[in-house]
Amino acid sequence: MLQSSTLKFLKDLKKNNNKPWFDENRKIYELAKQDFISMVEKLITGIAKFDAPIGILKAKDCIFRINRDIRFSKDKSPYKTNMGAFFTRNGKKSPDAGYYIHCEPGQSFIGGGLYLPMSPLLAKARQEIDYNFDEWKKIVNNKNFKKYFPEGVDGIEVLSRPPKGYADDNPAIEFLKMKSFIVSHAAEDNLLTDKNSTSNILQSFAAMKPFLDFLNNAIE
Prior knowledge:
With about 220 residues, the protein is of the alpha+beta class. The protein has one domain. It has helices spanning about 5-15, 20-25, 25-45, 120-130, 135-140, 145-150, 175, 190-195, 195-220; strands at about 85, 100-105, 110-115, 180-185. The chain has a four-stranded antiparallel β-sheet. A hairpin with a 5-residue loop joins β2 (about 100-105) and β3. α1 packs across α3, α3 (about 25-45) crosses α9 and α4 (about 120-130) packs across α9. The chain starts with a helix and ends with a helix.
């Protein structure tokens, strides 16, 4: 679970997204950071019980920096107003499909999948969905999967026309047009601070595992 003080820090940061304020409140940030690290460490241990390769990870392999890359952005705010972690067997910089947690007051969510992969990996994922569409349908229509992710798979960006090599009447065309394969559900602030938060998050991740396995088998 997260401490409510961690969410308060993120709320305050959103109102004061500048370096002088951050420097004045660095001690509070360090406490919030350690709190999030503690949660991530517990999640790594929990995920490893049903996805063993995740167990080799350290929190630093999963957690994203709070500093924003502003080089090519019109928004010059120096800090992210969330804390996020991505769990894959090869760490957060891996192109693999993985589990994700996003902690941001009022906008937190639990999710995962394959986010805007490079063209060669996207082509492999599409090919696997096309070749094994029956298996894919069983995964995304599974009762437990839909319990946690009732909105289904989000493509983030979707082609207006079928990708090259696929016909418009392909049974899987809804998915083949997608540029990402993501699932998520919102997480209320009180879910993150609840004593059972880690267990609840892990249940979502466990329901997601067959979906991730399919995608990772496709892109390997």
